[in-house]
Design brief:
With 290 residues, the protein is α/β, with parallel strands linked by helices. Helices cover 35% and strands 23% of the residues. The chain starts with a strand and ends with a helix.
């Protein structure tokens, strides 16, 4: 599979290069013969083209070496669309030299394998699943685009035998992910917590937390990751007094030796939230001073 990474700035600006710059007709001075340089320009792959363009304006091609399809791509059952407009393309209408950046939202995995084969250049920030179930094969293919943010929601990842793969078994297959978001449905297992404590995640966001979520035990299990940014979103029926007491204890202690978690509840007092956010800012400030 021949695709590679490049910055989104390069992806978005590549079209403008050929418009705003006068392309030299003659190769630059080099130890290589001019016919070799012309051949390099004419026959270079998309990746090599971009590398050469950065070296000298002569290598800028009159036509972009890939088709940039934009940000916020949504994958449907038979093609792709965009979250910010009504454009839609069937999978067989797409060329085989796609460039993609920003976010990828999956609502159906049917065309994932075909889409991946068409992508030759990417700079994917976030990958979001909005489907009940996704196969492990499709999951792996999409994670090969190396997103730094992953939203799984309630999506179940299933094996070839259609068995549910626990989240903790998926962590090793998402090495590029630094921000993981999940919707809480049942208490986390000790294995899940142990895998979290040794993961590469820098930020965790959980939604749908209720009274069954023991956040005191959860926090203790992550003591080995003091810089982990935790955002815990509780459903409205959760016991607010328990959450408030935990926040009050944090505020009273004023601890900044670990990143205080952000606890959110629909009925929480805005002043208390502001105080907690200030405590989090204090931690970041103390970290930057060290």
């Amino acid at each position: 599979m021949h695709f590679f990474e490049v910055s989104s700035a390069t992806l978005k600006s590549i079209y403008h290069i050929t418009i705003n710059i006068l392309i030299p007709k003659s190769p630059p001075l080099s130890e290589l013969p001019s016919d070799v340089l012309r051949s390099m320009k004419a026959n270079s792959s998309p990746l090599k083209s971009i590398i050469l363009m950065k070296l000298n304006k002569f290598f800028i091609k009159e036509q972009c070496p890939f088709n940039y399809i934009g940000d916020d791509v949504v994958v449907y059952a038979a093609g792709i669309g965009f979250s910010n407009n009504e454009k839609y393309y069937k999978i067989d209408e797409l060329p085989n030299d796609l460039g993609i950046s920003g976010s990828l939202i999956v609502v159906n995995e049917t065309v994932v394998a075909e889409l991946i084969q068409k992508i030759i250049i990417y700079d994917l920030k976030s990958l979001s699943f909005h489907t009940e179930k996704v196969s492990f094969k499709a999951f792996e293919l999409l994670l090969s685009l190396k997103p730094t943010e992953l939203y799984l929601g309630k999506t179940i990842v299933a094996s070839n035998n259609d068995e549910i793969i626990p989240y903790e078994e998926l962590f090793d297959h998402m090495p590029s992910v630094r921000h993981l978001s999940l919707i809480y449905e049942k208490p986390f297992s000790q294995r899940f917590l142990k895998k979290l404590s040794t993961s590469n995640f820098e930020k965790l966001t959980f939604y749908g937390l209720d009274n069954s979520f023991d956040f005191e035990t959860f926090m203790k299990s992550l003591k080995g990751k003091p810089t982990l940014d935790l955002v815990l979103n509780f459903v409205s029926k959760t016991n607010l007094s328990r959450i408030n007491q935990y926040i009050d204890d944090l505020l009273e202690a004023g601890k900044t030796d670990y990143y205080p978690p952000l606890l959110l509840h629909f009925l929480m007092d805005t002043q208390k939230v502001a105080q907690l956010e200030q405590l989090r800012k204090n931690y970041l400030l103390s970290k930057s001073e060290n």
